Amino acid sequence: MFDHKGELGPRIIVALDFADQAQALALADSLDPSLCRVKVGKEMFTRFGPDLVRQLHNRGFEVFLDLKFHDIPNTTSAAVAAAADLGVWMVNVHASGGETMMAACRERLESYGDDRPLLIAVTVLTSMSADDLKGIGISESPEAHVSRLAAMTYNAGLDGVVCSAQEATMLRSEQGERFRLVTPGIRPTFAAAAGDQQRIMTPVDALHAGSDYLVIGRPITQADKPLEALEAIQAEIQLAEE
Ligand SMILES: O=c1ccn([C@@H]2O[C@H](COP(=O)(O)O)[C@@H](O)[C@H]2O)c(=O)[nH]1
């Protein structure tokens, strides 16, 4: 679970959320694949498809394909295999699709051996608060619900979860060191706007809390100078680690 595809490598995953492919690739060209990975999500994949992923691979980036599959086991496991065929570094499903579905996805990737992508599951979206959970009929706290979904993910044999950094310390102690914690909702000290994110943390605090990978979008992609924003975050991290 831990020893393939360059883990840990760069801890920052830049979320490429653009309506324009040329803009996304221009940004990628201004970044350094040795300093970050990139994430392709629903917007860009729906517009530009697998070709965008190939173009990023050609530029030397490892790609997290963030399509959050949520369907019956047969469909979801086939989708995960398609992602593996594309050669992505990481792919995800929704943990709320259930343990049987997640286990089917994990099993489907067995035949790829060490070439398989990391397979993780989304717990509770970082844009959701306790009130949002109540709105969909879930009365437990975000922490308790994340903990429940992460335990299911672990039992299904996946590599880790997407959660907020606010749950990282809890999950690290519950699921151990090898369970990958991928945390969006990261807001560096220089980025004032939380936007639609509810459960946020700074990069340094997130790493201290136990995050393995920090997913960062707008604070980098919408910055006047994206490479400088990325470097500023890395400097924050390095300073805190000294
Ligand atoms: O719970 C989740 C799961 C995925 N995301 C994705 O991460 C990035 C975050 O972008 P920011 O601009 O830094 O807010 C975005 O692509 C989301 O789709 C998430 O935010 N939360």
Automatic annotation (TrEMBL):
GO biological process, one term: 'de novo' UMP biosynthetic process
Gene Ontology annotations for the cellular component aspect, listed alphabetically: cytosol
Reactions performed catalytically: orotidine 5'-phosphate + H(+) = UMP + CO2
SMART domains for this protein: OMPdecase
Enzyme active site: D66 (for ompdecase activity), K68 (for ompdecase activity), K68 (proton donor), D71 (for ompdecase activity)
Gene3D superfamilies listed in its UniProt record: Aldolase class I
One term of GO molecular function: orotidine-5'-phosphate decarboxylase activity
Keywords annotated in UniProt: Decarboxylase, Lyase, Pyrimidine biosynthesis
Location of the Orotidine 5'-phosphate decarboxylase domain: 11-233
Biochemical pathway: Pyrimidine metabolism; UMP biosynthesis via de novo pathway; UMP from orotate: step 2/2
Family in the record: Belongs to the OMP decarboxylase family. Type 1 subfamily.
Subunit structure: Homodimer.
Described function: Catalyzes the decarboxylation of orotidine 5'-monophosphate (OMP) to uridine 5'-monophosphate (UMP).
Protein name stated in the entry: Orotidine 5'-phosphate decarboxylase
Native species: Marinobacter nanhaiticus D15-8W
